[in-house]
Amino acid sequence: MAWLSHVSPGYSVVLALLFAVAAGLVGSFGLMKRMLLAGDVISHLALPGFGLAFLLKINPLVGAATTLFLGTLLIWKLQKKTGLATENVIGVVFAAALGIGAAITPSDDLVEALFGKTHATSLFGFLLGSLAVAFIIAAMWRLRDRLVLTLFSPEVATATDIDVNRVNLYFLLLFSLTILVGLRFMGALLAGSLIILPAAIGRRVTDKMSHFLLASVVASTISVGVGLLLNAIFPKFGPGPSIVMVAALLFALSLARNARRAGA
Amino acid sequence: MKAILSVKNLSVDLEGRRILSGVNLEVGQGEMLAVIGPNGAGKTVLLKTLLHMFPYQGEIRWMEGVRVGYVPQRVAADRQLPLSAGDLLTAKARLLHLGRPEMETAVSATMLTPELLNTNLGILSGGQFQKVLMALALLGQPAVILFDEPTASLDELTEERVYELLHRLQETGIAVVLVSHDLSVVYRYATMVLCVGNGSPCFGPPKEVLTPEALEALYSAPPRYYQHLIEHHGL
To answer: How much is the ipTM here?
Structure first.
């Protein structure tokens, strides 16, 4: 099984591009559910996990995955129990996670945990990440009709025999899984931004659902592709910030395009 | 006739406050049950409870395998979503494994044009949006449709068309549960009435239940509030 440990920077690049596809898709529905900011905040839930993993000298992603999913379940449960809006509950959990995370993460590792790093990925890591992305895309595809009806009207969805609570939980978990795949490159502070920015770009350029999904995925993939290229030329930037800068530039271009269209 | 929906001794408490108490009703095929009562009486809560969206005490029994359509009073979703009526109908059709003919039936019943189907929901007028909600509820030939004040924000002509459509549905055997403030509509179309609000709920045919005394007690309003209706309908 030694071949599974084969390490290559190429695996990282392909995995980052696959992550971009999942982030574009999940972000589109996140935007429609008005929980894009949640993505940004949910990614911070990984920070205490990173900190613990660094302290215990285990794989940081295992620690991040643990706190990310426990935090997600906590948000879902609190939302159900307290009846508070998702953003309120996420705000509370986020603040706690960031505080604990910053306190326990060794300062040498904090920057990497927050902003990501270009790691060469092993074949095993690549296969695992690809499997996660394939699962996210397949699950989103299967969930899309339920999501559309739920975000339009929970009552209409319920009358159509959709379990709205379950759909919300599945979406939150897919949201977290997407962030987990992106943590390596983007870091806990920026992983959520690739869910926010491409969806915002997609929404700026089209009114049609199918075009919107496609535009978000394309914007996300371009951001990651060009961002990684930028990072290769200027390694000082780091992959996360490079990707976010490209995505922000694309968003600015979409604003300019719309302004020109409005002025025409 | 077998009841599509039967409710016995239903009570609903929300956040420690009793919203509904002792509600009994039955709806059969092709019947129209009108739910009336003052604002805040729990009419919308009743419809949502029938969909099991709120916890309750008592019994709610739907006929087995019954398909329900729901037209909400208002839709909380951002109307600027990149969604069209076509997207919503396609999503529901796919979930229920329905084909194009079923979609066309719902679309033609509500007179939605192909252009409207492809228009973003955010730029539809109130009447057009209402048509979308109704088409969505009708898709899949439900045995019963729950309408929560379907004409709340419509002009009189559109309102009239909505009620004509409701009446046509009733004639095809679809049962309708209608929340309405418009007592003239209740007198015209309802086969049964449920009043909720002040006092204990009443249930029965309009002419038996909607006596001047009952209406006065229900709305806590002076008799002249509905005098013209009573005169008009010879009660």
So the answer is: 0.83
